[in-house]
Amino acid sequence: MTFTPMIEARNVGKEVTLGQETLTILEGISLQVKVGETVALLGASGSGKSTLLGLLAGLDLPSAGEIFIHGHSLGALDEEGRARLRAEQIGFVFQSFLLLPTLTALENVMLPAELRGDRDAEPRARALLERVGLGERLHHLPARLSGGEQQRVAIARAFICQPALLLADEPTGNLDSKTGARIIELLFELNRQHGTTLVVVTHDPVLAGRCERRIEISAGRLLEQEVA
Ligand SMILES: Nc1ncnc2c1ncn2[C@@H]1O[C@H](COP(=O)(O)OP(=O)(O)OP(=O)(O)O)[C@@H](O)[C@H]1O
Ligand SMILES: [Mg+2]
Asked: In terms of Cα–Cα distance, which of 141, 145, 131, 142 is closest to 193?
């Protein structure tokens, strides 16, 4: 029996042109992630981890190769189709959080659920913010939150639609070990309860160790690591 993987990347490359120069950021990336699998994406600063995560979310298109999310070719969809696929299936935690500055913590978390017409967006957003330890910060604007608090709001926002695939760029990067441990529990609870596939970029050995598989990227190329 065969199962459609949650992620399949075939020979993906990314180049950017800066003036006269063409810079190769990713090259020959082939990767499969099964439904429900948990994967840590490791690699030095500048190796291409965030770029790859953005391509997997369809936020940007590769210059070569093809990416399938649960069997859907991202390249075959237009911008609107990719946005719909993201809204339905993918939660994304950006390295820089990207919270909307004029919305409160609660409103930021509610937004993706409201956009798709969920009636219970507010109670769910409140419950999630409580789970990430921000029950007392619901009405703060991002500028009034610490870096780690903004990160937790971004994580709650990524969870609210119970995505089939969660792509998280250093989700514990700004957190102390206790808060980080709480976020790690939340990530794996989502995986256990809903079968959410997790791909996390991380330098955190605890988080990487909890994942079933670690893959490493070095200068834009993937080195497949051992299965734990
Ligand atoms: N739009 C762009 N134009 C030019 N260069 C870019 C662009 N985006 C990324 N890069 C370059 O591509 C390389 C990979 O960047 P990326 O952000 O993916 O690294 P990373 O592995 O996430 O690093 P970090 O651990 O520091 O977050 C870097 O050298 C970066 O300077
Ligand atoms: Mg990065």
From this structure: 131
Identify the structural domains of the chain with CATH numbers, from first to last.
Answer: 7-227 (3.40.50.300)
| CA distances to 17, 88, 102, 182 from 131, in Å | 43, 23, 23, 9
For ligand 1, is residue 219 a contact (CB within 6 Å)?
no
Distance between Cα 46 and ligand 1 center (Å): 5
pLDDT in tens, 182-225: 889 989 988 998 899 999 999 999 999 999 999 999 999 999 75
Phi, psi for residue 139 in degrees, rounded to 5: -105, 15
Q: Identify the burial level of 20 via C-beta atoms within 10 angstroms of its C-beta, where 0-12 means exposed, 13-18 middle and 19 or more buried.
A: exposed
Q: Chain centroid to CA 114: how far? A: 20
The pLDDT tens digits of the residues spanning 111-129 come to 999 988 999 999 999 999 9
